[in-house]
Amino acid sequence: MGRIPCCEKDNVKRGQWTPEEDNKLSSYIAQHGTRNWRLIPKNAGLQRCGKSCRLRWTNYLRPDLKHGQFSDSEEQTIVKLHSVFGNRWSLIAAQLPGRTDNDVKNHWNTKLKKKLSGMGIDPVTHKPFSHLMAEIATTLAPPQAAHLAEAALGCFKDEVLHLLTRKPINFQGQHSAAALGNNFTDYINCKSEEKDTTVEKIKFDQSKAIQQEPDMMPANKPWDSTASASFAMPYNVFPTMPGFQFSPASFGNKADASSWSQSVCSGSTCTAMDQHGQPHEKLEENGDDSEATKEIRNLSNIFNSDCVVWDLPADDLINPMV
DNA sequence: AAAGACCCCAACCGCTCTACC
DNA sequence: CGGTAGAGCGGTTGGGGTCTT
């Protein structure tokens, strides 16, 4: 059973594309456009699956694509948008002209995740590791805290292992939220040997956000837009733990009307909160609106809210979410 | 110099969504 | 309204290049 394959797999070539195949596909699309991918390989004289042709075109051959390295500003945009949308690569790529979702995804997985981990920031939650540990300690009593801390560490064990085995990182001052709290320039200076400007800028954003939070959890309120104006992000602390769903109510706080009370995204999922701080189930619910419509509305709330959710003004977005 | 480890990224897989009949 | 095909999406894989030992 299952879905009918998009093509006869036996008669279809797979693997790397040759320049000849690229030429055939490009010239065919230049003449006839991209309607009906199933017919394109047949008409273009290619022994390829239509899906393979579509991917080759959208990810590589399209004339408007950039193929070079990601710039610092592109990396910053990815990090910022990832903190909001999670692994919604197509949404993120839509804000980066000339970049595909595949590009963004690959760059994230191979470079940016490690950069963030190297800075002591969890690439899933975009929070400093120390913050996560503090939250565990303040939210739960032992022994649950110990178990959850162990599980949380397991979430980024690959990055930690990478750091331990490949790139020793100077964590001085980095694992202490108190050290981060009062002076972000100290925080940056403690790793002054690091030349990567992107890393510095990301650190600046992170430390600034932390600086604006006067105390550690639970006093800080991630759903309070004023407390994390510069680098607000969804504070879903344990996104990979079954049954653990962040909501303002879980910290005994009544939800306000900030952006984060409406949308909490993490990892590959995006969970919307209703006005009472209760999570919708993956944006699926009854009502007239389609899921996409609701999601876009949620996004537009973020981008168009009176408060600046993060230092990426709505005007700067290539594709405003409206 | 050679072998193994690691990295990167193009391509594939399978699922979901949407449009159309 | 249900079925089907096309398209889009995110996760994963595989192979070639580079680095390390």
TrEMBL record:
GO terms for biological process: anther wall tapetum development; pollen development. GO terms for molecular function: DNA binding. Residues 9-61, 62-112 form the Myb-like domain. GO terms for cellular component: nucleus. It is found in: Nucleus. SMART domains: SANT. Residues 9-65, 66-116 form the HTH myb-type domain. Its main location: nucleus. This is Transcription factor MYB80. Residues 277-291 have a biased composition (Basic and acidic residues). It comes from Flemingia macrophylla. CDD domains: SANT. Keywords: Developmental protein, DNA-binding, Nucleus, Repeat, Transcription, Transcription regulation. SUPFAM superfamilies: Homeodomain-like (SSF46689).
